[in-house]
Amino acid sequence: MSFFKNIFSKEKKETLDKGLEKTKTSFFSKLSKVVAGKSKVDDDVLDHLEEVLVASDVGVATTLKIIKRIEERVAKDKYVGTEALNELLHEEIVGLLSKTNLGNESEFTIPTNNKPHVIMVVGVNGVGKTTTIGKLASQFKKQGLKVVLGAADTFRAAAIDQLQIWADRTDVPIVRQEMGSDPASVAFDTLTSAVTQGADVVIIDTAGRLHNKVNLMNELTKIKRVMQKVVADAPHEVLLVLDGSTGQNAFEQAKQFTKATEVTSLAVTKLDGTAKGGVVIGISDQFQIPVKYIGVGEGIDDLQVFNKHEFVDSFFK
What we know:
This protein has helices at 3-7, 10-19, 21-35, 43-55, 60-77, 85-98, 129-142, 157-170, 183-197, 213-227, 248-260, 279-287, 308-316, and strands at residues 117-122, 147-152, 174-175, 201-206, 237-243, 265-269, 291-295, 303-305. It is of the alpha/beta class.
């Protein structure tokens, strides 16, 4: 048993396998048609494989990169049987993910050099942003960390109320103001409260409006600037939450948010309800931002720390 298997519990692996089942079934039903009646990987197989990867929401640019790598392997080895295609794909995808994702994580941890460690969470409405924050708070609390939430999405009353529900459910303090309040003011109050309480982690929710990128950029910049009056280098992390079930739309959202602010990590949610799990591979490769968390179910424990080895393993086996 590998080191990665040891730190990744059997229960988590089963949840991951189940969460990626639709993606795996869809991918391999298409892949089996590609190799049907073929004995070796040739141009025809690669052309069809390209179609399968694009259809699995890996994205065109990343797909072409994978195909090029496999072409090089096939040219080098002269003859590659179709039975080896799975293994080749497995290796090349792990290789791509290796550039941005460390890969051997399994626990919810934070750097020890920041107290509090400040996470600003961004993403459009409906992607599971507030739910992800709630699940993160729960996981951090399980690790014995003191967590404070900040409801800086003041654009919607529902967002504040939803975060309050998660704060109550996980029994962590929340700082909130009325709908329409200045988000930067909420962030300032949250950090002030967190420092006073000796909190380990602060998670700030922000509004998910993309209709005006200039306003979004200005708002996020202002929130950062105001937070830094309390904690000099805050935020230590900007986590972008994307809905994996939207496929190519998630790419577009990633594009817009990376233009609006400096995103340092990604959470890809709702992977269990769709066959679009390939989007994790494409987004990680195209934006060169590490995928930190993935959502593979609705339960509070179904938000997992992304482990590239286990993810690709579940995708292929």
